[in-house]
Amino acid sequence: AGSACLGLRHGDLVELVEIEDHHQTDIHDGGVNPMTGTVLASVVSFDPWFGCYHVEASPGYDTFTGGAKFLGVPASNVKPVFWNCSEPQAAACACLGLHAEILAQLKLVEEATTQLNGIYLGLRPLQWVEVSDEASTAAKLKRCQVVKFDAIAGRYLVKPLTLAYSMLREEEGDGDSSARLKRWRRLVDDTNSIPARWVLAEQVRPVLWGDCSNDFPEATSLVVAHQLAECRLALVAAVEEAAANTQLGLEKDMLVAVAIDGLDSCLWGLMPNNAGNVFGRIVDIDPWSCEYKVRVPAEKEAKPTTQAERWIPHNRVRPIFRESQDPQGDWATLQVKACRAAKRRENAEAARASVAGALLGLPKGQWVLETDSSGNSKGCVVVEYSRVTGSYLLDPWDRDRGHGLKGRRQRSSGKVQPVFWASEDPLADVETCLRLHAEELNHGAEALKAEEDARFANLGLPVGVAVRVFDENEDVTCRVLQYMPEVGEYRLTITADVAIESYSDHEQRRPCTQLRRCFLDEDRPLEAAVQTIKAHAVEDARIREALEMNAACAAGGLLDLKEGIRVMLVGDGLNRRPSEVHSGRGIVLRYWPDKRTYDVMLDTGAPSSLSRKSFCSSEHHLYHITSVAARHLAPLFSEVPKPKALRQELETRHVGAATCFSKAVLANSACRNANLGLPAGMRVYFQETSGAINARGTEQIGTIQSFDKFHQRYRLFCNTVSNGGCCIDVVPSALRPYVFEADDPAAESALAVAAHETELARLWQLEELEAKISKCNLNLPTGLPVRIVQAIPRSHATSLPKRPGVSRAQQLTAWLSSLVVAKPPGCSVGDIAYIADHDQSNSCYILAAGQLPQALPVWADDEDRSMLPRNWLRNLDHQVQSADASSLRPLLTFAEDPHAMAARLRQGHEAALRRAADQCRLLEQRPIFLGMPRGTGVSIVSSGRTATIRAYDASVPGYSVYSQQHGFFFVAVDQVVPDLSRDDNFESRTHELECLHEAEVRRLAEVRQANELSASWHFHLPIGTIVEVDAQYVPCGEGLLQLGTILGIHTEQHPNESTYTVALRSGCASGSCSNASCRTFPQQHVKPSFWEAQSPLQSARELQSRIEHFQKEP
Fold first, then answer.
1. Residue pLDDT, tens place only, 393-434
2. Before 327, cis peptide (omega within 30)?
3. Sheet harboring 367-371: ordered strands across?
4. Which of 133, 504, 675, 739 has the lowest CB atom count within 10 Å?
């Protein structure tokens, strides 16, 4: 089988003849590098197209080349071998059979290939082809695969493939050989990164070995597909030639050929074909100029770009049917559309000529040609037609962006001409325009007759109607903005085209005699004229009645005029005008029944319908006048619909106000001293801080919102000239009830007096309760207010650190004031302070004092609302330390239930007295308690001071304690008594301490035994052991104890030279140590100590066993 080199299967063992020693051969497209040498290899795959193998050298035969990959090895360099076959003879016969089969297939392929010369059309995707270089026919062919066909340009998109494949080693047991081969083929296709490219169809020749398999398409099917494609191209060419002159009726997305010249080719960056055309697609149509917007893709681009979009005249465009499934049917449809388009354009031209004089009433959306002053025309779209001025609001039309753009403009009807290029039925639209024009002419004639009939009806014209202004210099049409009957004038727009909603500051004022109603804006002018005449007669009668009422009320003096009513200053009130030329007219803002005066906003010269903010804010005080006496104001009835009815109503209100004022004066005198317990919602007088008490000129009026029991102030809402509407806090002594606006002043006064007396009785009751519990000053709860009854030394007061919002200057001022001017808050007799915390003893407190925050209090869920909240206590400015209970008197000011709070304070005081008695008895007995835990409060017998245990030293025995006044110090156990004055259960706490004492006595007995047992243990003590150092080695004068902890061991050859590094305990706190307390001591002067062990004997035995273990080690 030496010559059977074709058709070897995957995994067959071969011998490579003339193979050079290298790991991988660099194979170029279409050839193989020279190779020499002999190597055993395994076949990966066979490529029948090029007659070569992809092989991988077998490991173990040649250590240098084992595992190397060889790509594109020619079949002549491959020789099958059968070293690994169980039946070599049968394998050789199989190779010969495969070789013969491949030879037969090659012969069939060569015969079929001769039929494919000149076959290049109708190739399907994935068809394998050979592509020749267009520049040279002698160039070698390239193997490619068809991706798709472009019927427009007659070209293929092909993907080249080369022999430079990537090979991956296959693991054993990965499946059969056919599965591995399929995976390898897929890997070859995925890893090929060569980009696809376009080639002309004439450069392509189909081949039948491209899929590397025994199955290949028959040459006959490719020939038939080519012939069918040629027939279709001939049909398309014939249709395109027949449709060359069909240039109208083309639609969007249709494929077209555009004729361009050399200049267009340079401007567009496109190269035309041999016929001088480029292919494109219609994206938009301009019916005005009959042009097409064509998107032409640039050369060598697969996708069209918007940069190549151009407007092309219709005579340079012809349809293309190369993408059509039915070219003849599409051409027939296009012919029908082209005939319709041509007919429509003829009708549009005729319609434009026939409607030349019909320029009125064109409908919205009608296309027109606008002619400017220079005679140039531009396309526009009608937005709105104005009957009053006979003009149009036009929207400019741009064929690239459409209409609806900025730049709308008003044009008269004589400067527009309707066109019908975009109309589907121009003749029908012409009839519509002629009909609307005739209707507008008839409407104009009716409007002129109606205007003549109602020429004297010029009163009460509604807002927005069109009017004609007659002056000796002009005759213009405007619209009404406002009717002003007081002065007999109208506010008008400059022109009638200005919409009322979008009106700006441009206006004019004209008297009624210069106006005449224009009825062009009415659909039925004659009926509107009749209504206008009737409205004029009604308004004339109303004005006469209003003048009569104005004369009757000209003297002024009416009380309780309604807010918003028009008034005029009379008499001395004219002196309050901002200028002598001011009319003195305005509107009532408010009536003050207690003073019988008004607040008035005078006219600013601007239209009264506009906001008062329309003028400068600096001039507000000139037009907003207050305290205008009733005798200086007279009501005006010129703008009132029913003047006589309003006068009767005003007289009725005047009589009622006068009667109510008499009652309110008596009620106000009765309740002027009622200022306690007033309910929310009651109107009150309040005194501004800058004014004198009860000075009438500085009193303001507000409404009670709530009462703040912490600040003892009312929260009022007021809306006056000085504050503009806000909430302020006022003390009760600075306000009194305001009853002049009450429906029943006497009842309101009685309510205020009753609330005052009720609150006064409650305060007397509080004073009685406070007197009863004045001696209950022990165990007071946190947040309770107290009064200082005995002066507290200044040294007990401290200022808290700086809080956010308090400046450094304010702190310095408060500090100097506390030193020089007076005692700090919470130290003087009569001061109010708040319980912040209990001091070390039960008879002393830490007080918080100072000004309370202005914000509303916020309590936590577990806080009592009868006390000051904790967040307020932390924010007060001053603290008073060690305030004796005898200096304080509890207050019930904040208590929601004073009796319950008094009982609570009494019970707490009595419980504190009982605990104090128990504590005194304990001090007299002076029992000794060992082993009291850290944090236990104790009393020092010798000094009577209170302190807190920080550490227990069983070797003395004694305690390290801490006091806020004296810091840390050490006391013996017989000088310490537990402080149980604040424990609710004295007996149980005493029993607990006794149990701890008994347990400690038993533990100390074991400690002494363990210390006696370990007295001779000096060597081999581990790190961390608590030890006792001989007294002569402990430094004097540094406050160090004999107890310490081993931190390091320094072993020498002789035991007496070995040392320990020990951290000695400090005398002030037996549990503390530092770097300064570390000393080095000889080991023979150090012994273990078990004063702190929980189980001393057990700890001693464990240490003994550890020492014996160290001694046994060599």
1. 888 877 766 655 567 888 888 888 888 877 878 888 888 888
2. no
3. 409-412, 391-396, 377-386, 367-371, 416-418
4. 504
